Amino acid sequence: MWEDEAEEARRRRILWGAGTAVAVILAAGAWYAYRARLGNESSPVPAAAVPVAAPLPSPATDVPIAHPMPSAEGAGATALPALNDSDTLVLESLSGVIGAPAAAQFLVTQNLVRHIVATVDNLPRRRVAVELRPVKPTPGTPATSTQGGLVTLGEDNFARYAPLMSVVQACDMRSLAQAYQRLYPLFQQAYEDLGYPGKYFNDRLVEVIDHLLETPEVSAPIQVVQPKVFFQYADPQLEERSAGQKLLLRMGTANERIIKGKLRELRAQIVKKT
Questions:
Q1: pLDDT in the model for residue 157
Q2: Residue extents of the structural domains in the chain
């Protein structure tokens, strides 16, 4: 199986056997969150309410904003909770976009903004921390097909993502962008807490969207190899790509095109037209 999914399975076995470990079971054992680590990350954040207006970088110390957001309807109408107390509001907001059943099925329920920000920031890198993903793991294990000594990603592997893709296809990007803009001060704070003081999270989000849109489309069956424990792409050029691009490749061309289309729609909604 893929390294991140295999590592996730290994962590599940360790946490379950420990019994008294710091992880708690979420979603009937589908997801484990490292409470001790998350608690350490969140503890320095003050409990004061987040400012209503999105914090902008200081012109004396920060680079100019490359992708300012358009004004959001309803933004600033009410004060937002502190970042550490924002899970209920954020889940309710996302439930209003994708529906409560889908939100319960696919989204983590703790430190959601921090998970989104950390994952977005890591998608262009080599790895994304499994325990910080905002979306619960896809059920099942990677499915492959073998023919003539060649091992490729099978159609069953792409079908594993069908429930999630149904939610993605039905998601209205304008509504999602409006929710994001209303909640933006929370995302900005989480981004600065991650180690980017004075930098603008929306710039990073647009940068990551553009990076994902550069993922190649591989029409032929994607060959994989298993030199040790984990599967890897046989093509070195594919294996060297970022975690985000390899995830799109693993989902199959049809799913990749759907996600790219939605990313283009979202990008158009979160960048102010000049």
A1: 87
A2: 3-45+66-270
